[in-house]
Structures are given as structure tokens and as C-alpha cells.
Amino acid sequence: MTGVDLEKALDRLKAREERKNPDEVLAAFKQILAEDDQQEEDILRRIFSHGGLSAQLDLRKLDPQKIYTLDQVKELCTQYRLRFLDSAYFKGEIPYEATRKVKALQKDQNQTLSAFKIMAPAPMFHLEYKDKDPLLFVPLGKDRFYLIHKWGKDLHPLRKLLVFPFRHFKALMGSLAGLCAFIVSVIPSSLLIGPYDNHSLSIRVIFFFYLFIALGGMTLLYGFSRVKNFNSVLWNSRYDD
Fold it and tell me: Is 43:99 a contact under the CB 8 Å cutoff?
């Protein structure tokens, strides 16, 4: 005599119940879907709302690899010229996968999350006074943040290099000095020195400082009118300056 497969026996009871009351089963299924949709709408509403409270999460239930400090977040924003702001200022779309992960985290922690942060390029935020790769965080307190979901395309690998001069003032000056040194070094001696072969190094040094001053002046005049400020200042600013 073989044993009873309880799962198959339960499936048979379920199938029999569905045959007897198909409308009730369908209505119950629709109710479950409606409640699930309502929960996702509530999550999106809280993501785009102001004034959420930081979560008091059980850290033992979190993935430690996804917990980051404020200094780490600031460093990455400074390197890639990103913003780290309350999710209420975000003007992009929140994908279904992100809301699903928030829902799963809420269930695991047995509490409702209402405060979120997003890291993304500034154009993806509504900035006051008036910049694709957003990261959704939940604050944990004590300057720590838990990464819930990342979506969009990866940042171009050259972005870090292109925005390097705008990290802070020292990076800008270093970049200008490096550019001037490169220009001075590739100019042919016959063009730069002429009959003054015995003073080649001195002439190159003088030309370096002239070029550095000229490029520095143009950067101050035209660069800041476009870039406006350094990454180290803008990373958590709600203003476009």
C-alpha cells in the first residue's frame, strides 16, 4: 500500500472546490490582485512623498553587502557628479522590480517603510532654481543607508574621467596643470625655442605658467557658468548651482 501524497490530495480538493464555485474562486483571486496593486500604489506614494521617517530595521535580517555609509555615498557622488536626495524630488519612473523589493523588505521586517533616498544624475531630479542610473536606498540611521534596488543603464565608463576636474578645486587645478604640461611637452623644440637652444627648459617653464594662467582664466569665466559648482558641494544639494 503506497503512501498518500498530501500535496496532490490538496490539489484535488482545490480543483473540486473550483469546479463547484468558479465565480467565488475568481472573485477571491481578483481581490488578492487588487490588494497587491493597492500595496504597490501605497509604496509609490510613500516614495514620492515628503517627510518620511527613517526606518528602524533589524540589521540582522539585511544583506551586509548592501549597507553603505554616508562617506561612501558622498565619495561615489563626487566621483561621478551624482546627486543623493530624498526620493520625493525624483522625477523618473520607479520600476516594478523596485516596488517588489520594497514590499519584500517590508514583509521581512514587519513594518512599513516611508523614507527613501535616491542616487542619480541631477537631470533626474526636480531641482529648485534649477543634473541614468538610479539607486534606491532606505536610511538606517547613524549615516548608514541600505540599497534596495538599482535600475536603468550603467553609467558610461568615461563619465568618471570627464567629470574628474569638477570634483573639487584641487582636482580642477591639477587637471589644468596636467593639460598645460602635456601641451608644453608635445610642442616641437624648433617651434617653441628657435635660436634659444641653451634656454629650452626655462622657456618651456615660462610658457607653462603663461598657458596655465590663460586656461585658468577661461575656466573661471566660462567653465563655472556651465558647471556652476564642484561635485563635492552639489552631491546632496537640492539647488542647481
Answer: yes
